[in-house]
Amino acid sequence: MNAGLLEAIETEQALANLLEELKDRIANTVQEASPMPGVRPISGSPRCAVISSSAVFGSPGINLSPRYYLQSAQADAVVSGVASCHTVTELLERLQVMVGKQKVEHGEHAGTQLNTQAVQILREFIS
Predict the structure, then answer these.
(1) pTM of whole model > 0.85?
(2) Residue 29's pLDDT band (boundaries 50, 70, 90)?
């Protein structure tokens, strides 16, 4: 194989690995964020928490979805939202859309609303 072509393939693979590491870092940062005010995880479980009524009534539109309050669910939504990005440019554009809409869209009429912590984390990655 031509040395130039081999070098291009190796560079392409290194960039793909770097992109995957970046996606993982973003998701891990969202997941490891402190719980929202009024949200108390139960026994360290990422999927179970006590949510105060003040947190619910203080959310935009009185959000009743548990996915809005649990950082692990927010991280899962971000992972699914960026999974199809194959370039850093696509990733940046997708993150900008998520921040702008404060939502990860799953099709035309479905999605996961992002909480303020997740939006702030994504904003920091793209700034």
Answers:
(1) yes
(2) very high
